[in-house]
From TrEMBL:
The gene is rplY. Residues 99-181 form the Large ribosomal subunit protein bL25 beta domain. Belongs to the bacterial ribosomal protein bL25 family. CTC subfamily. One of its GO terms (cellular component) is ribosome. NCBIfam families: bL25_bact_ctc. It comes from the Bacteria. Keywords: Ribonucleoprotein, Ribosomal protein, RNA-binding, rRNA-binding. This is one of the proteins that binds to the 5S RNA in the ribosome where it forms part of the central protuberance. This is Large ribosomal subunit protein bL25. The keyword rRNA-binding applies.
Amino acid sequence: MSIILKAAKREIVGKKSKQLRREAIVPGNLQGRKIENINIQLAERDLQVAIKAAGTTNIIDLDIDGTVHEVLLREVIRTTSQQHYIHVEFYAPDMNTPVKTSVPVKATGESPLVTSGGILVTPQSNLELSALPKALPAFIEIDISVLQKFSDVITVASLPAIEGVDFLSPAGTALAYIAETRATRSASATDADAETAATAE
């Protein structure tokens, strides 16, 4: 399903842009290799909906006064309260040229180590990769059910291949592991003592 976002060319620039924000209109701009920089403005509510649907990896059909550009969200600046937008920047990529970007990592599945009291650790919240604009994944899924021992680690190298996507983060980058806790160490010690006693009998 395409994500459509309507905008208009912006004449107000600089400090005067505060006037737009008071009217719930967000100033922004569109850049791209094959287009000139365009100053734009758009309704804050429409922008909020589009960002929620597209994130940084899904193509947005940005309709500027009737002319549609296929774009990616490049940067959004929010107020300190995070409740409103100050400025937004879009980028119109060459659809036939791979782009480099950062994609969120999403843990799925269950590990028995977590059930027994271990703590899931995900050192990297994002992963660097390269793909054609329309092949960019919304997130990278890591299945933690493969973590059966505390020594197990999911790395970039252990991820399944995704057609058209090249991982740029180092192969040895740790993405997930289960950390031991006092409770799990105590349980392991108890199990070991029970096993020793059983063997002695």
